[in-house]
Amino acid sequence: MSEHSVRSAIRSIPAVSLLFLAACMQPVREPDPAAPVLAAPPAPIEAAADAGAAPPPSEAPADADPAPAAPAPAVEPSLWPSIVARYAFSECSQPSPAVRRWQRIYAQSPTRHAAELARAAPWIGYVADELARRELPAEFVWLPFVESRYQPFRSRGDRPAGVWQLMPATARWRGLRIRDGYDGRLDFVAATDAALDLIEHLAQSFDRDWALVTMAYNAGEFRIKGALQRARTSANATPPERLAVSPITHEHLVKLRALACLVATPEQMGLALPAFERAHQMQSLRVDRQRSVAQLIALLGIQREQWQSWNPAWSGGRVDGGAEILLPQQLVQQGLRAIEAAAPEVFAATTPAAGVDRVHVVRNGESAWGIARRYAVSLSALLAANALAADAVLHPGQRLRLP
């Protein structure tokens, strides 16, 4: 066919047909109900091959062996099957009546439970990866769901806090800091490390009996050891499910197994598991030096509400250098580049003008020792500046002059 004939044939194709062919070449992406409210980066568009083009003639001889086919690209398993594949102590084909009962409770409203899974999925994926890295059973991904439904609850006094619901003494034992402006139990990265360290410690104490580990996480290591010691005095072996401990502790284990089996066999309860894109999974990002929350929000290009949802531990307005903050994976690389390129902040001098006293207003739960440490002054100097005895009790609203 002559060049003139080819051009004439192309011009004769209706424009509507060309538009239809172009539309068919665009990928179709289903909406993700678990995604945070973020402007997702545009997906790269690759040049599509012409499906109608004839293959080039082969130059190889007819009796030559065919070229080996290129290996298929690895497909990353979706979140929920990858978790179920690593279960170690949940029998989901024939769950116990107690587990079945809690499956029905969680699935009373399948739509609502699916929505809760979608909301928590970015954090669930993070914990699942950490469990896999430590070679711990994947059932423990449901432990924060049992404890808090993955909500970072705050607390005061000697009460648990955070998604892992760690007590202050336990948190400090596992290396978490709790001070003015920062509660490590609300720091998802640090608290997850501390909770998994605790699980590994309990695994050693109970010879990797994961049911006992789960019960000890709830009731405490020594309560479970005491129950085991009492059970050994009987002639019959006592399984973990029959130990003489609080019903709350037994129910804690049942709830975890029920959540695990609900995701393993969702069709039995009419549950449709939500879709999830790994780009929305949470990932940690190290902060190079001390920076204000306001600067980090500006550098990351996010809203303050998003920051508070992802990093509620930092309530003092500044983030320590070397700390790890939490972001969706799709923001980590651009956030890292922005933080590395940003100049250090120049914080306002805290030294008061000559002749001006510095004053601290006591808040609920504060001690003289904690206030002295916060302002880097000696306790004796603070007490002397305010004519206080060593055993003085501070009251909320009390004004202390800082030396």
Number of helices: 16
The CATH architecture category of the largest domain equals Orthogonal Bundle
Under CATH at level 1, the class of the largest domain stands as: Mainly Alpha
The total beta strand count reads 8
Helix-and-strand structural type = mainly alpha
How many domain modules? 3
Give the secondary structure arrangement, pairings included.
Elements: H1 3-11, H2 15-24, H3 79-84, H4 97-106, H5 110-134, H6 143-148, H7 168-173, E1 178-179, E2 182-183, H8 188-205, H9 210-219, H10 221-232, H11 247-264, E3 282-286, E4 291-292, H12 293-300, H13 304-310, E5 318-319, E6 324-328, H14 329-341, E7 358-361, H15 368-374, H16 379-385, E8 399-402
Antiparallel strand pairs: 1-2, 3-6, 4-5, 7-8
Helix pairs in contact: 4-11, 8-9, 9-10, 9-11
Short recap of the structure:
This protein is mainly alpha-helical and 403 residues long.
